[in-house]
Design a protein that fits this description.
Largest sheet: 8 strands, parallel
Strand content: 25-35%
Strand order of the largest sheet: 39-38-37-36-33-32-41-40
CATH class of one domain: Mainly Beta
Number of strands: 50
Helix content: 10-25%
Number of helices: 14
Shape: globular
Distance between the termini: 42 Å
Structural class: alpha+beta
CATH topology of one domain: Immunoglobulin-like
Radius of gyration: 31 Å
Length: 922
């Protein structure tokens, strides 16, 4: 039978006269030793039932269902041909149809066999033309219902402000689209058009462009039914000035960003108290905003945005994303599956037919996540990693990893008044940090809609290579990509022509074209890893710069860190030469990035190939390779692979390791700037001792393993042998032991949503569109979050209600909460180097962190006793029990009872932290 939840199993069974009386039992072990009911359960023959069994009450329920047939939609949209409907379950079939004037009047019918012999209704079903409907048919009652829906449609602004490239308009209603455009002298005269398909084949106006006044900002509105275009002038482009304590109230011209926004970066460093500023229009204080000065905190740096349309000021502190990310702990959320704050934006994926309408794949959203931020803080987490937020398009795109537009947030996450910026601001308001998952390796199976038109356009460029002859550029799209616009027709043959040819070639190689992917060979970085992930050529400067520009926007919005997907499918050389320095430049040197190098091996090295192994990406380059053009870059990354084909010459580090009992200054001169998910530990986490062992033996290969992000299971995998394709299914005390290690050992602990209650324990993690999400590790979690909680600080809460109270009281939830409290109180557990020298016992280690204000030393023993020898003398206080040991001869023995339990002896420690629970107790 198929598990539905932890106590419920079901099966769909047909009875077809196989025995005299149709009947059945539920058998536990397959030998009749325990079966229910004692007498057989009798049902009607020649019928199909959904049979449900409760393992606690042993109750059995039967629900008669009709067998799944094939029913066909036939109507004016498909010239009355047959189109199979999608079976939703419970006798319901679905079809989405767009009626677009093919035949009048618009109508349809439902056909059973495809021959009109059994059709419903007897007369055709009439609908309005030029509309899209979700059509539901009940095969039991033969009832038909129609629901008008909007199908996503895209219209583009193209004009002088954006070099006639495509800018997607914002959809306001079924037929109304809007774009705010700033015309700033880019081309004369200022003008624009509206493009439907991105290739100028359907454009409005049809012939002449819409002319506007330059140096102006306009709201442009387009009606897709009438094709009417309206323009509304919103403002004039002119200098605006920053004045404040940081520049002695002098005028500093702000940077115009477009769409009416101006920016200024200001550092307030105690010049005048209190720190404050204003925005001045003319430089003479005659028109200033706000009327009273805008107060900020001193000794901080801010990005100040001013909207001249609304006169609003937005201030974002820079450096929030800085600091040491090892001080954080991470809660990982698949946004669409976490909490549904706005049912109106719920949607199915195109291939999501198995998911019932009550649980569409796109269910959770930003609004729901905001509503449950206090729950995450109540558990003690200070950072939230969310799945990608960018616009997706594929048959199963609810997870966010199938981008069609990296530069836009997918509207399916948003609600009225709740944008991505709202989420970022709400996270920061709670003193928490937001980690955005990003994908640089690939797009969706349709490609990237901002890059694909460049690919098309390159085919229109013709070169006449006769010496000293004129050059003709055939550009029917009306705009030349990249730097072509600066190269007017009839330029003479020579170096500039070669440059144009190189650019044209780059445009042809927006994507990698490798046909043969070798998982253990070089083409793992140039091939397409799946049918729905078109591989982006990240060695192409055109592609790389587009991705940098796209994701810099999110850094500007205040995102605190990036988790980078599929890192091993991009050369480290590309990261070190391109992406890492660009994002560090934008976000600051402390902007945190960690990558997924999915090396599913129990040892550190992936088949002994460094270039696709986890530690490799933590290192900077020591050899210089030619870099600049696409052809140079591609040749260099291939050579880089060859030069790193064995582990013989890989660097080593002791940045993670104590020298005796002493902390030492780490050497980051060869640090790449990107941390990693600790896949070797993850792959060994079926048993905590195995994960600990691979780390102790392999940490010398990382530049600094204390920055590794550690987790047990995720949205992709569980540990090897656990088994890997199911959410962690080992006994609860194994979970507790793993968690005790993660929160006290080196690295940044990360928990996948629901692990705190063993949510979907043992369920398959990801089976694609072949099973309802409710039966997988990506099930909807919101039912466990109904209710509320009052939070005073990380891990400190009261007044829980509803299901949330039950969830927070779970033994593992309480275990995680206390581990977070302990880790936050002991700097050595966050940032300390570690050693196992002089220690006898199982999972046991010592850690120390020292800076100008701190000297934190701690001894940890997990699940078993340990003796620590050669340690500093002094008073050690156990954070678990409050027990005190005064060490005078350099030795301490810790006695631990129970799997998952531990002792955390802190030198001159604060005492007992948190309350005793199932696993952390005397």
């Amino acid at each position: 039978m198929t598990p539905v939840d932890t106590t419920t199993y079901e099966i769909v069974q047909s009875f077809d006269g196989e025995d005299t009386n149709a009947r059945f039992k539920i058998d536990r072990s397959g030998d009749w030793a325990e079966s229910y009911p004692a007498a057989d359960r009798v049902v009607d023959d020649h019928k199909t039932y959904r049979i449900t069994f409760d393992t606690v009450s042993k109750s059995i329920t039967t629900e008669e269902i009709l067998p799944q047939d094939t029913w066909y939609f036939r109507g004016t949209p498909n010239a009355w041909n047959t189109a199979a409907m999608t079976y939703l379950g419970a006798n319901l079939y679905e079809y989405i149809a767009t009626f677009d004037g093919e035949e009048s009047p618009a109508r349809f019918l439902i056909d059973r066999y495809g021959d009109f012999s059994e059709r419903y209704p007897a007369q055709d079903y009439p609908v309005d033309d030029y509309k899209t409907y979700r059509i539901l048919f009940n095969q039991a009652t033969k009832a038909i219902t129609t629901e008008e829906i909007w199908l996503p449609d895209t219209w583009y602004f193209r004009g002088t402000p954006n070099a006639w490239n495509m800018a997607e308009m914002t959809r306001l209603s079924a037929n109304t689209y809007e774009y705010i455009a700033t015309f700033d002298g880019e081309e004369s005269p200022a003008r624009f058009l509206i493009d439907h398909t991105g290739d100028f084949s359907e454009r409005y106006p049809a012939q002449t462009d819409v002319s506007v006044t330059d140096q102006r900002i306009y709201r442009i509105t387009f009606n897709s039914d009438t094709k009417a275009i309206t323009t509304e002038e919103l403002g004039v482009i002119e200098p605006w000035y920053f004045r404040g304590t940081s520049n002695n109230w002098n005028t500093a011209q702000m940077t115009h960003l477009g769409q009416g926004y101006y920016e200024y970066i200001a550092t307030f460093d105690g010049e005048e108290s209190p720190a404050r500023f204003l925005i001045d229009r003319y430089g003479d204080f005659s028109e200033r905003y706000p009327v009273q000065d805008y107060p900020v905190q001193d000794h901080k740096t801010y990005r100040i945005l001013f909207d001249i349309l609304t006169k609003t000021i937005t201030v974002s502190e820079l450096g929030v994303s800085g600091g040491d990310f090892r001080e954080e702990t991470i809660y990982f959320v698949m946004t669409t599956r976490f909490y549904d704050g706005d049912p109106s934006n719920n949607m199915k994926c195109w291939d999501g037919g198995l998911n019932p309408s009550t649980d569409p794949a796109w269910r959770g959203d930003f609004k729901g996540l905001i509503e449950k931020l206090d729950y995450i803080k109540a558990l003690g987490f200070s950072a939230i990693w969310i799945t990608p937020v960018v616009k997706n398009a594929s048959g199963y795109d609810y997870h966010g990893y199938h981008a069609i537009d990296h530069s836009k947030v997918d509207f399916r996450y948003e609600s009225a008044g709740v944008s991505y910026q709202t989420l970022i601001d709400e996270v920061h308001a709670r003193g928490m940090k937001l980690i955005q998952d990003i994908v640089l390796n690939h797009s969706c199976n349709y490609g990237e809609e901002n890059l694909y038109p460049l690919f098309q356009r390159s085919e229109t460029i013709n070169f006449n290579e006769t010496a000293n002859s004129a050059v003709t550029i055939d550009d029917p799209m009306g705009v030349l990509p990249l730097n072509y616009a600066s190269l007017a027709p009839n330029n003479q043959y020579g170096a500039r022509i070669d440059a144009m040819k190189e650019d044209a070639n780059d445009v042809n190689f927006i994507y990698h074209h490798e046909k043969s992917l070798q998982w253990e060979g070089y083409t793992v970085q140039t091939g397409q890893i799946a049918g729905d992930t078109v591989d982006l050529n990240t060695e192409n400067p055109v592609t790389a710069q587009y991705l940098i520009d796209a994701y810099n926007q999110y850094i500007d919005m205040g995102v605190d860190a990036f988790r980078i997907d599929t890192v091993k499918h991009i050369s480290r050389l590309t990261f070190n030469n391109t992406f890492v320095p660009a994002f560090k430049q934008r976000g600051g040197e402390d902007f945190f990035m960690f990558g997924e190098i999915a090396s599913r091996y129990r040892q550190v090295w992936n088949s002994n190939i460094p270039a696709i192994s986890t530690p490799f990406y933590t290192w900077a380059e020591t050899v210089s390779y030619p870099w600049g053009t696409r052809t140079l870059n591609e040749a260099s990354v291939y050579q880089h692979w060859q030069d790193n084909s064995t582990v013989d010459n890989e660097p080593m580090s002791n940045n993670h390791r104590l020298i005796g009992n002493d902390y030492h200054a780490p050497d980051y001169s060869l640090n790449s700037g990107m941390a990693v998910i600790d896949f070797p530990m993850h792959w060994n986490f079926q048993y905590a001792a195995d994960a600990f062992g691979v780390a102790v033996g392999g940490d010398l290969w990382y530049n600094d393993a204390t920055f590794n992000v550690t987790y047990v299971d995720s949205h992709d995998y569980a540990p090897d042998g656990a088994p890997e394709n199911q959410r962690f299914a080992q006994p609860q005390d194994s979970w507790a032991e793993n968690l005790s290690l993660m929160f006290t050992f080196r690295g940044i602990p990360c928990i996948y949503y629901g692990s705190e209650i063993e949510f979907q324990k043992g369920m398959p993690i990801d089976v694609g569109p072949n099973q309802p999400l409710s039966q997988t590790g990506r099930a909807y979690y919101g039912d466990h979050l109904q209710g509320s909680v009052s939070v005073s600080d990380f891990g400190q809460y009261s007044n829980t209600s509803g299901e949330m109270a039950v969830t927070l009281s779970h033994p593992l939830a309480q275990h995680i909460r206390r581990l977070n409290l302990i880790r936050r109180a002991v700097p050595a557990l966050q940032k300390g180097q570690y050693s196992t020298d002089g220690i006898s016992g199982g999972i046991a280690f010592k850690r120390r962190y020292t800076d100008a204000e701190t000297d934190s030393f701690v001894l940890v023993a997990i699940s078993g006793g340990a003796t620590f020898s050669g340690i500093p003398n002094g008073t050690y206080v156990d954070a678990i029990t409050g027990g005190v040991q005064n060490v005078v001869a350099g030795s301490l023995s810790a006695s631990v009872s129970g799997k998952g339990n531990m002792k955390v002896y802190v030198l001159n420690g604060p005492g007992k932290i948190g309350e005793d629970g199932t696993y952390l107790k005397p």
